[in-house]
Amino acid sequence: MQQVRVRPFAPLAKKSQDRVAGFRELGSDGGPWIEGYLSIGRRSIPKVSTRIDRRDRLGALRVRLGFGRDRYRILPGLYAVGSPGTDSPVLVSANYKLSFDTLRRELGGLDLWLLVIDTKGVNVWCAAGKGSFGTAELVAKLGQCRLGDIVAHRELILPQLGAAGVSGPELRKESGFRAIWGPVRACDIRAFLAAGKKKTQAMSRVNFGLGERLLLAPIEVVHAWPALLAALGLGFLAGLPFAPGWIGRSLSVAIILAGSVLAGAAGFPALLFILPTRSFSIKGAFLGLLWGALASWAFALPLGLAAGLCLVSSAVVAWLGLNFTGSTTFTSPSGAAKEVERTIWPAAIGTGAGLALAALSTALRF
Amino acid sequence: MAIAIKTRRYVGNGTSLELAAELCVGCGDCVEVCPHGVLALVDREGGREGAAGRRLSSEVIAILDRAACMECGACARNCPTSALNVKAGVGCAAAIINGKLRGTAPNCDCGDSGCC
């Protein structure tokens, strides 16, 4: 095997070392997931618990709902799992706490090193896309943590999805470490290590099944709150001029419009692969039309109002559907750009025309 | 052995993915990092004589399933000879609109403030 020459890392000022885990005891800012310390020379390397407790689950629930995600971070640096030695494997991960928890819960009974790099609290794949899970940051952290002093080998096991940001050839050139691309999902790490760092095909593919899509629905709904508010406001306006029966009219319009927002935020992710065509905006328009028509029929709305609301509902779900491209695992920038161009005007005109038709129908009673 | 893995496709996928087969050294690193099975190593057809008498590898990369390519850029970033090229970026409509509004590159604003 080819011998790799490893460049010695320049010693860093103490202050810069302190900003990464693995040099001193972390104390209260380390968090309850630190179960002890491993002493190597004068360094105290935090030992990570592989158990997830109630606080971790509550934290996960909170960020899944979209609250405080940008502050859900852990200190970057070197961590130990079990009792690792100089030959133990090194896993690299992001400093988003949800990613960190997903990984560490799979590591019970294993002995290894965990190098957490600073992705500003963003998960591996998104951070790789942005470049913060990248070669430069990884090489910097290798130097700051002086990993070369801790392990005898020169291999890093990186999450495969980090490959969009980290270049294996550059990493080797700049640090001497060789990238081994691990599985996509943390739950396959144990099998991957047991198989001698070999992946099956299933371990290297992203799937985006129903469960994964439904996990995203809560945050989509929370993010859609302005649209929900607008739906309720428009429903109230539809009651004008508050003649007898206005409450029923208001409610039915509000329910149809708010329902279209929910259809786009929660129904769309669930039904993604059942809806027709590959285009997200057409899938959305179809779902919106379906919802608008069904709900209008259920409320026995006048034809003009129903047609107007169907148009609005179609446009709203098409738009929310298009926005879901940002959460999927398979949509390309070329495709999303093409769809944005094709959708902006039809959606805007559809919404405007639909609202005008609904207003006219309410005023003139047709 | 064929394993049933659902392939997800999208309009316009893989539009910017380019392969310069004569630069490919057949290392297969791109196949390893691709999350959608877009690429595969195949036998090189049409002889192994390259330009300037350079001997080409016996195996070469082929684009098997362009419509599954989400243009994440992992293959190009990990290609040691720049045989693969792709205009990588976030396939996110909101990011594209953000970029258009501000006249910058597509940006999903998820860095320090949340989202994806």
Give an overview in words.
The complex is a heterodimer of chains A (366) and B (116). Chain A is mainly alpha-helical. Chain A has 14 helices and seven strands. Chain A has helices at residues 14-18, 54-64, 97-104, 124-130, 135-145, 147-150, 168-175, 189-194, 210-223, 225-238, 246-271, 280-299, 303-323, 333-364; strands at residues 34-40, 43-48, 77-81, 90-94, 112-117, 155-158, 178-181. In chain A, strands 3-5-4 form a three-stranded mixed sheet, with helices on both faces. A two-stranded antiparallel sheet of chain A has the order 1-2. In chain A, strands 6-7 form a two-stranded parallel sheet. Chain A is elongated, with a radius of gyration of 26 Å. By secondary structure, chain B is an alpha+beta fold. Chain B is built from three helices and four strands, in the order E-H-E-E-H-E-H. The N and C termini of chain B lie far apart (35 Å). The model of chain B is unreliable at 111-116 (pLDDT under 50).
